[in-house]
């Protein structure tokens, strides 16, 4: 680098330098000859300190040589063009600041001088780094998600294709990301997948292509859709997939892409088909057995006709037929009762829905009435505040009218009346909701984690008419986790136990039904105890037998506790009973918190 003057240049030579927002520093290969105030704020050095610094002090050793070469080119070459680059400088506090550096030269006071223009771009650089980090984090989240997931942008280009999607679709992410071939994992020829139609906003095409595949709007995400379909090209024998696609929007609400997730439901579909096949086979066997029974009946009738003279045999056959007829009648009564219960359940759900409508607007009207009454009382308060300004005879008339109407009592009682009315409508709404939860025909029959306390309370509310005239209910609930179960079936068990406990109370004495809950390791337990009549050992040992009942004919089928036992067994639990005549009965149900898969079932 050639030698140059190193004395500072007067600031009066550069009147405009102090008005620009960029840092300006002049040098001739060594010391700084001039720096504006922006340069001082950018580097943290005072103006006097800058004049004593070597120009290269700001740059890191790794870039000093490159900056020196560019500056030397301007000092030695007349036609050296202005050069620009982004680099980092070191401030007085040791902080790194990113700048956009422009290097040019000018003849000043007869000597060539290098002009360095420093524009602070640290904030932009930090924002770019944050954006890259966020993008990397998003990519890690999607790639690590065990649910097959793909993402496309507004140009229908695949931006993410995670590992789970590779396994289901059979195509590597490297062959998908950056292309518009997302269809290739599902179809033999090009056609839009659900995410493409959501990005394009072509809802009519979405309904046309997926309407026959159980298409439905997502109840959770606005603009998202769900469907299921069979893809014969996937796997060895094809796969059933349940897929969900949702739009991705920017801060302005504009669609900038879509995300689609897949779920392999092949095992569930295969199980459904096997179940239908088993049902058809069972129906065929029932038909065959019915034909055999009819044939046996015909043969029996012929045999009876041939042996009319054998009185002993005839009586024996008659007794057998009588017993069979009784069983058929009991079975018929049970079937009729089941149909009645199903019809009552549907009717109750419909009635509950119809009750909800008037209760809804009655409750709304009461809230409005409460507001109106409050406003009217406020108006009356204003009138009372102005009462002192009225003539004596007018004030006397007002006092007389208030006394005649018992105004103070009305003011106090009207709020209580409205509050009691609100409480009444809320209680009706709660009863109706519990009735719908218990009896609705579309109750979920899928295993799911449920709150048993909610089921107990809902069932007690439904059974309150059977219980309230005979016993008081005491709840001694412990802390229960969510239990994997079929809650509607457990509610039926609870209903049987509550009704039996109420009916066990002797006439003329009001009893107590105590409901307790708790946990024991990986299990929960529920107890329903009553202080009713109790059971002798010979009755207690048979209560879970089908068709066994101590109730009069027409009052019970003897199937309630038998069905309850089967439901608890289905839940891999236990139901036990302890009873003492004259003391009472306690039923105890034990259930696992997490259901174990049946032996041989896929994990």
Radius of gyration: 43 Å
CATH architecture descriptor name of the domain at 443-592:
2-Layer Sandwich
Structural class: alpha+beta
Query: What proportion of the residues form beta strands (DSSP E)?
Result: 15-25%
Please give the CATH class of the domain at 443-592.
Alpha Beta
Main beta sheet strand tally, sense and closure: 6 strands, antiparallel
N-to-C span: 76 Å
CATH third-level topology of the domain at 443-592: Heat Shock Protein 90
What best-fitting shape do the alpha-carbon axes yield?
extended
DSSP summary: helix tally: 16
Helix content: 40-55%
Structure commentary:
The protein is an alpha+beta fold and 603 residues long. The chain is 47% helix and 21% strand. Among the domains are: 11-120, Beta-Lactamase (2-Layer Sandwich); 127-264, 2-Layer Sandwich (Beta-Lactamase), CATH 3.30.450; 443-592, 2-Layer Sandwich (Heat Shock Protein 90), CATH 3.30.565.10. The strands form four sheets. Strands 7-6-11-10-9-8 form a six-stranded antiparallel sheet, with helices on both faces. Strand 1 and strand 2 form a beta hairpin. The longest helix has 75 residues, at 311-385.
How would you summarize the topology of this molecule?
Elements: E1 23-27, E2 32-35, H1 37-43, H2 47-51, H3 61-76, E3 83-90, E4 96-108, E5 111-120, H4 122-144, E6 149-153, E7 158-161, H5 163-169, H6 194-200, H7 203-210, E8 216-217, E9 225-231, E10 239-249, E11 255-264, H8 266-306, H9 311-385, H10 392-405, H11 407-439, E12 448-450, H12 452-462, H13 464-467, E13 471-476, E14 483-485, H14 487-503, E15 511-520, E16 523-530, H15 537-540, H16 560-570, E17 574-580, E18 584-592
Parallel strand pairs: 13-15
Antiparallel strand pairs: 1-2, 1-5, 3-4, 4-5, 6-7, 6-11, 8-9, 9-10, 10-11, 12-14, 15-16, 16-18, 17-18
Helix pairs in contact: 6-7, 9-11, 11-12, 12-14, 14-16
């Amino acid at each position: 680098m050639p030698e140059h003057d190193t004395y500072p240049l007067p600031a009066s030579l550069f009147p405009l330098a102090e008005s620009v927002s960029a840092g300006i520093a002049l040098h001739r290969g060594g010391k700084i000859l001039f720096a504006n105030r922006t340069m001082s704020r950018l580097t943290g050095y005072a103006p006097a300190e800058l004049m004593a610094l070597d120009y290269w002090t700001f740059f890191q050793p790794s870039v000093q040589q490159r900056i020196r070469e560019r500056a030397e080119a301007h000092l030695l070459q007349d036609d050296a063009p202005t050069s620009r680059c982004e680099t980092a400088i070191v401030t007085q506090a040791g902080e790194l600041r990113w700048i956009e550096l422009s290097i040019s030269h000018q003849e000043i006071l007869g000597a060539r001088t290098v002009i360095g223009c420093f524009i602070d771009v640290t904030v932009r650089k930090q924002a770019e780094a944050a954006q890259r980090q966020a993008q990397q984090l998003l990519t890690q989240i999607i790639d690590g998600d065990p649910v097959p997931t793909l993402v496309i942008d507004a140009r229908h280009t695949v931006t993410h294709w995670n590992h789970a999607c590779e396994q289901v679709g059979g195509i590597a992410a490297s062959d998908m990301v950056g292309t518009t071939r997302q269809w290739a994992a599902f179809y033999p020829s090009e056609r839009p997948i659900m995410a493409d139609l959501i990005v394009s906003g072509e809802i009519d095409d979405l309904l046309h292509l997926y309407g026959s595949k159980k298409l439905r709007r997502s109840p959770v995400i606005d603009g998202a859709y769900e469907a299921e379909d069979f893809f014969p090209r996937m796997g060895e024998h094809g796969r059933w997939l349940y897929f969900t696609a949702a739009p991705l929007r920017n801060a302005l609400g504009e669609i900038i892409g879509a995300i689609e997730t897949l779920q392999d439901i092949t095992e569930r579909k295969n199980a459904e088909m096997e179940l239908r096949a088993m049902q058809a086979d069972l129906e065929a066997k029932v038909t065959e057995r019915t034909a055999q029974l009819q044939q046996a009946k015909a043969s029996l009738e012929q045999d009876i006709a041939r042996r009319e003279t054998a009185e002993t045999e005839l009586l024996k056959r008659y007794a057998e037929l009588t017993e069979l007829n009784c069983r058929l009648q009991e079975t018929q009564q049970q079937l009729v009762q089941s149909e009645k219960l199903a019809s009552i359940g549907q009717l109750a759900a419909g009635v509950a829905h119809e009750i909800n409508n008037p209760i809804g607007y009655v409750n709304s009207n009461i809230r409005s009435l409460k507001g109106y009454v409050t406003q009217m009382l406020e108006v009356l308060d204003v009138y009372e505040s102005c009462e002192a300004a009225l003539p004596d005879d007018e004030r006397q008339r007002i006092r007389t009218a208030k006394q005649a109407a018992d105004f103070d009592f009305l003011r106090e009682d009207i709020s209580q009346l409205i509050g009691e009315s609100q409480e009444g409508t809320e209680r009706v709404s709660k009863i109706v909701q519990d009735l719908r939860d218990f009896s609705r025909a579309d109750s979920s029959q899928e295993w799911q984690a449920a709150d048993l306390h909610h089921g107990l309370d809902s069932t007690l509310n439904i059974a309150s008419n059977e219980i309230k005239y005979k016993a008081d209910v005491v709840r001694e609930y412990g802390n229960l986790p969510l239990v994997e179960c079929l809650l509607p079936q457990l509610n039926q068990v609870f209903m049987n136990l509550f009704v039996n406990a109420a009916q066990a109370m002797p006439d003329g004495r009001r009893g107590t039904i105590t409901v307790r809950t708790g946990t024991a390791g990986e299990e929960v337990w529920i107890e329903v105890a009553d202080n009713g009549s109790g059971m002798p050992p010979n009755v207690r040992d048979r209560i879970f037998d089908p068709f066994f009942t101590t109730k009069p004919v027409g009052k019970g089928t003897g199937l309630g506790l038998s069905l309850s036992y089967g439901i608890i067994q289905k839940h891999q639990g236990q139901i036990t009973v302890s009873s003492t005549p004259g003391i009472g009965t306690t039923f105890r149900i034990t259930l696992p918190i997490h259901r174990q898969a049946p032996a041989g079932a896929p994990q």
